[in-house]
């Protein structure tokens, strides 16, 4: 077994890859980043400002693969004999590629569900008997955050989460089209329909025309602010869960857990026998090429080889604002303003963690609830009151907004965004008197990268709020601009791929 393997891998799938000229063991189906982690390799790339980066805090991970630069290792699977080298961000720009050599697909459905977690699955199961549905999921699996868990979850009995997901998805009927590994570029008005352009994992553009749209886009992990929080060996909670429960690989052998919700990961670490320590007040990570120690605000030092950030989640608001939704601040995060039927406007619904942070089963029930509302709109019998009543048993989770020790941190070492947007950069602009987040975006590049602020915009708002004393609910949060992802057209000619922005 490799240094960080938790489980035996299938020997017949074993391949050899070469990193910086040295051979390493890998297995077919693994992503490059996962295979290298299993071999104890954390430092994979370098930011434009020379900061060492791994694969599990900020993305993407540009690498040289078989002599070709700018390959995103987070999305590329290993092959036997593959040769890998480190690469800096340089001129790399992560984009969604559309192959112009492939015809544009077109699909007309009654309902387009964006997001394949418990809420999206619940909506599909509620409407599929009477309506046609397309469910679009960016990951390579359905189930969302539930799929990443290894322990039974409230409401689903004693079954393992992946068994629960497979059982639910196995009930999909012929009225359902599933698109995994597929990115939705936004929601656009098109007469009596909504246009939802998607790009599949095969780089094909498909235009989905839907009478109703459900945004079941889930939530994103909070990025906790401390010095060198982008260092190789720092993991978001969701990435740690993925490497453990999807790939059977440990994030490290001795791990520090930081953030307001350590219980979201510690039970999984205990299940696999991974040593950990909970550190409630991290200040700085140190190491030569990866995490070697964590120092807290009291000066205590912890010798660890990985840090997992478990600081809760907040709704993914970008698809909501792009589709025309308004926001309000409640329970420590921004949430969509909904009418009595969970709509941000006529025809567009929101369900699940995109509405509020709550247990997986509550998200599933909320998906069923939205499906019932849609059925009634189409003239079919439905009983949304049944789901409304059951949802009363679940109180949404409040997420704390941490008081930032702005004058105690070395702000240049605290990363708000993977695009080299530091706390220091944002704080200096705010201290100069500029508090408009739109202007701050232009001056610092905050929320201007590939993700359009899914992970960083909230912390930028926190800095403005705490420096100026302005309540979070009084800030003007920028609207996500369409399309939700940067696009690059790929033209294949005479066996050579050329790209046009």
Keywords:
globular, Ubiquitin-like (UB roll), alpha/beta, 501 residues, FAD/NAD(P)-binding domain, disordered C terminus, 9-stranded mixed β-sheet
Describe this structure in words.
This protein has 501 residues and is an alpha/beta fold. Among the domains are: 11-94, 2Fe-2S iron-sulphur cluster binding domain, sarcosine oxidase, alpha subunit, N-terminal domain (Ubiquitin-like (UB roll)), CATH 3.10.20; 105-220 and 316-391, FAD/NAD(P)-binding domain (3-Layer(bba) Sandwich), CATH 3.50.50. The strands form eight sheets. Strands 9, 10, 11, 12, 13, 14, 15, 27 and 28 form a nine-stranded mixed beta sheet that branches. Strands 1, 2, 3, 4, 5, 6 and 7 form a seven-stranded mixed beta sheet that branches. Strands 17-23-18-19 form a four-stranded parallel beta sheet.
User: What is the CATH class of the domain at 105-220 and 316-391?
Assistant: Alpha Beta
The multimeric state of the shown protein is single chain
Give the number of helices. 12
Question: Using only CA atoms, what is the Rg?
Answer: 22 Å
Q: What fraction of the residues are assigned to beta strands by DSSP?
A: 25-35%
Helix proportion: 10-25%
- If you consult CATH, what is the topology of the domain at 105-220 and 316-391? FAD/NAD(P)-binding domain
- β-strand number: 32
Overall shape: it is globular
CATH superfamily membership of the domain at 105-220 and 316-391: FAD/NAD(P)-binding domain
Q: Describe the largest sheet.
A: 9 strands, mixed
Mean pLDDT: 95
């Amino acid at each position: 077994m490799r240094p960080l393997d938790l489980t035996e891998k299938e020997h017949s799938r074993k391949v050899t890859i070469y990193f910086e000229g040295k051979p390493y063991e890998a297995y077919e189906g693994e992503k490059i980043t996962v295979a290298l982690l299993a071999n104890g390799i954390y430092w994979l790339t370098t930011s434009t400002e020379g900061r060492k980066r791994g694969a599990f805090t900020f993305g993407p991970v540009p690498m040289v693969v078989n002599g070709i630069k700018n390959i995103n290792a987070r999305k590329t699977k290993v092959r036997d004999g593959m040769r890998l080298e480190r690469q800096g961000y340089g001129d790399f720009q992560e984009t969604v590629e559309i192959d112009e050599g492939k015809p544009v697909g077109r699909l007309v459905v009654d309902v387009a569900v964006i997001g394949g977690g418990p809420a999206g699955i619940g909506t599909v199961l509620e409407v599929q008997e009477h309506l046609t549905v397309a469910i679009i999921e960016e990951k390579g699996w359905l189930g969302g955050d539930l799929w990443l868990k290894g322990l039974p979850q409230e409401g689903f009995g004693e079954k393992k989460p992946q068994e629960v997901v497979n059982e639910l998805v196995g009930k999909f009927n012929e009225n359902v089209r599933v698109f995994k590994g597929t990115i939705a570029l936004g929601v656009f008005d098109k007469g009596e329909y909504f246009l939802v352009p998607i790009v599949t994992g095969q780089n094909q553009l498909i235009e989905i025309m839907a009478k109703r749209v459900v945004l079941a886009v889930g939530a994103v992990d909070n990025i906790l602010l401390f010095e060198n929080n982008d260092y190789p060996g720092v993991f978001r909670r969701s990435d740690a869960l993925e490497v453990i429960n999807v790939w059977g690989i440990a994030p490290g052998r001795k791990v520090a857990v930081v953030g307001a919700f350590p219980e979201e990961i510690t039970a999984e670490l205990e299940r696999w026998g991974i040593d950990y320590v909970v550190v409630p007040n991290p200040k700085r990570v140190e190491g030569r090429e990866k995490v070697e120690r964590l120092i807290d605000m009291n000066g205590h030092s912890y010798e660890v080889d990985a840090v997992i950030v478990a600081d809760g989640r907040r709704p993914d608001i970008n698809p909501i604002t792009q589709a025309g939704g308004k926001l309000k601040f409640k329970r420590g995060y921004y949430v969509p303003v909904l009418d009595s039927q969970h709509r941000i406007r006529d025809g567009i619904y929101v369900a699940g963690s995109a509405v509020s942070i709550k247990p997986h089963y509550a998200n599933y029930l909320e998906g069923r609830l939205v499906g019932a509302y849609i059925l009634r709109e189409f003239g079919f019998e439905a009983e949304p009151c049944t789901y409304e009543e059951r949802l009363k048993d679940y109180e949404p989770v409040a997420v704390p907004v941490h008081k930032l020790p702005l004058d105690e941190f070395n702000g240049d070492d605290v990363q708000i965004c993977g695009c080299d947007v530091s706390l220091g950069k944002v704080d200096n602009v705010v201290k100069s008197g500029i508090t408009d987040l739109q202007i701050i975006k232009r001056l610092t590049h905050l929320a201007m990268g590939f993700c359009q602020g899914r992970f960083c915009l909230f912390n930028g708002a926190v800095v403005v709020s705490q420096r100026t004393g302005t309540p979070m609910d009084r800030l003007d949060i920028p609207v996500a601009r369409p399309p939700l992802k940067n696009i690059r057209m790929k033209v294949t000619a005479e066996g050579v791929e050329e790209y046009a922005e």
